[in-house]
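[09:14] KT: can someone run the structure on this one? pasting the chain below
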Amino acid sequence: MFVELMPLLKERTLLITVARIDEKLKVNVIPARAKEGEDEALTTPLSYTGSPEELDRELGQHLASYVDSHLALGSTLAEAKAEMDAAAKAARQKAKTMQPTSKPDTATKK
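[09:31] RB: done, structure tokens below
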């Protein structure tokens, strides 16, 4: 279980809760926000409910899939932000070069 979480733990703290619901267990893995202004999608928790045997057998696979999806989402969001920043910078540069240079009016009307 913890081996699967290591890639995600490099980037952020995780809160793990376990609760008993009748004869089943519910496990929640809740990623903390890594930095201010980060997209909320990166703090989406994983909840998994099953018998202790099911959790022993399947939780590792679900965690590995969750971590892969989480890392891919973080990478996609970072790429999109970088592309938008580059486009904004290019637009500002283009607007700067397109601005007409104003010359003072030397002809005076009488």
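[09:33] KT: thanks! The first strand starts at residue 14 and ends at 21.
[09:34] RB: yep, looked fine to me
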